[in-house]
Write a structure and sequence with these properties.
single chain; about 325 residues; alpha+beta; Ribosomal Protein S5, domain 2; Alpha-Beta Plaits; 2 domains; four-stranded antiparallel β-sheet; 11 strands; globular; binds L-homoserine
Amino acid sequence: MSPFSATAYAPATVANLGPGFDVLGLALASPGDRVTVEHSSSPGVTLKAITGHSDSLPLDPARNTACIAASYVLRQIAPEAGITLTLEKGLPLASGLGSSAASAVAGAVAVNALFGSPLSRIELLPACVEAESVVSGRHADNVAPALLGGVVLVTGTTADAVHRLPAPPGLYLAVVTPAVAVPTAQARAVLPATVPLTAMVHQTAQVALLVHALYAGDIALLARAAGGDRVIEPARAHLMPYLTEAKQVAAESGALTTIISGAGPTLCAFCDTQRSAEKTATALVAFYQQMGLAAQGQATTVAPDGARVIDVH
Ligand code: HSE
């Protein structure tokens, strides 16, 4: 008998990893979003409720990434069926933690699970990319790691363009979000349309070094490469409150380097011990508070697995 309800969790993600704009991303062990879907007599997807970080999230299913991805999967596997969808937002919006991607991935995985998981994990990618493209642009550097876990290189938006990379053991991350919304569209609008050849050469070298460091399991080298972005961060720095000072605070707490997570304003500090990640997260939250900004932070790690089905009954 078909289950009545399915719930899936999808993790936050850090896109870009510094120089790898739109091509690199990793899944975080926490936080994340949850989606529960249930059968309904009305065809298609009905949005039942949004809880948690739900402020200003569109209730229109056509603008909500969990619903868009769920509809896409439903059309593929049970086009006549109907479901209701409940979204529990563990991630703040416009924070640089892949909030829209986590909702999309959790929606796609939950619907697939409700119908017995006929699609493989990677076969859910098109639904997630489609949903992400409605709110944040057509790029897979958040949805691919949210779906698959670990560190991921995306050279396009189709399944054959997704490449899992090794995550070095011993890498700890301090992830801190000041209470400032930076919509991805705005953070993309400030980027240069062209870059000088010298910048292109430098950026290419940093991405190659970063991939080499992942395979070598060299966290110090990884941090050096991640900190080597000379194109995206300078263009976005004015959107990130107190960026220079925050990076200094993180360095003084033992962080090896600090990057903007995705389109920001979340900062992600790379650390080689759990203790320095905890110290960095605490120091950054305190720093933002001194500056009059509420902030949330935590020490976390790379999640080796991406989204998961957490309940089917
Ligand atoms: N690569 C994207 C960006 C991630 O930096 O704009 C945010 O969705």
